[in-house]
Amino acid sequence: MQRGKSKYDYISYKWEFPGGKVEGGEAYEVCLARELNEELGIEIVISKLKYFMLVEHTYQDFAFEVHCYLYKLDSREYVRRVHIDHRWLNIEKLLELNWALADVPVVEKLIKEHL
Ligand SMILES: Nc1nc2c([nH]c(=O)n2[C@H]2C[C@H](O)[C@@H](COP(=O)(O)OP(=O)(O)OP(=O)(O)O)O2)c(=O)[nH]1
């Protein structure tokens, strides 16, 4: 997904995976299900999420952890509600996008593992 303009230049218009910040004490998987619903209007089955990796990243203004999960969607039907653009790409094309820096290790692992 492509993020729109942000108050931080270094993430403005960058590509990222759907997701967002944990709210209250919610579990990571519950957060992801909520964000996928808010951002794409899709309902997922939480028990089918597969943990993929953790990225710990520090931008100049904040540090954060990104907990990444894999999920096999039954259909590609969704509504883009938050981002300004989206792409469905084969793994080998992923590097053509201008990813947020925190996402680069995720893209590299996806490519390395041929997922
Ligand atoms: N969702 C998401 N955020 C990412 C990725 N890579 C990356 O650097 N980020 C950064 C951008 C944001 O500063 C932060 C996530 O915030 P967000 O704006 O997506 O979270 P949110 O949906 O809860 O948004 P908000 O309510 O705070 O506006 O992490 C990524 O792949 N996905």
Looking at this protein, list some descriptive labels.
2 strands; two-stranded antiparallel sheet; binds 8-OXO-2'-deoxyguanosine-5'-triphosphate; 19% helix; 115 residues; 15% strand; single chain; alpha+beta; Nucleoside Triphosphate Pyrophosphohydrolase
Characterise the protein shown here.
The protein is an alpha+beta fold. The protein has one domain (28-112): Nucleoside Triphosphate Pyrophosphohydrolase (Alpha-Beta Complex). Helix content is 19%, strand content 15%. The chain has 2 helices and 2 strands. It has helices at 28-40, 104-112, and strands at 50-58, 63-70. A two-stranded antiparallel sheet has the order 1-2. A hairpin with a 4-residue loop joins strand 1 and strand 2 (63-70). It starts with 27 loop residues before the first helix and ends with a helix. It catalyses: 8-oxo-dGTP + H2O = 8-oxo-dGMP + diphosphate + H(+). One of its GO terms (molecular function) is 8-oxo-dGDP phosphatase activity. Belongs to the Nudix hydrolase family.
Can you lay out the helices and strands and say which pair or pack?
Elements: H1 28-40, E1 50-58, E2 63-70, H2 104-112
Enzyme class: hydrolase
Protein name: 8-oxo-dGTP diphosphatase
Cofactor: Mg(2+)
Question: What's a concise summary of this model?
Answer:
With 115 residues, the chain is of the alpha+beta class.
Class by alpha and beta content:
alpha+beta
Question: How many helices in DSSP terms?
Answer: 2
CATH class: Alpha Beta
Low-confidence stretches: none
Bound molecule kinds, no repeats: 8-OXO-2'-deoxyguanosine-5'-triphosphate
How many strands, which pairing sense, and closed or not: the largest β-sheet? 2 strands, antiparallel
The CATH architecture can be given as: Alpha-Beta Complex
**CATH topology annotation:** Nucleoside Triphosphate Pyrophosphohydrolase
Distance between the termini: 18 Å
Mean pLDDT: 96
Shape: globular
Order of helices and strands: HEEH
Approximately what portion of the residues adopt beta-strand conformation?
A: 5-15%
Strand ordering within the main sheet? 1-2
The tally of beta strands, per DSSP, is 2
Q: What fraction, in percent, of the residue positions are helical?
A: 10-25%
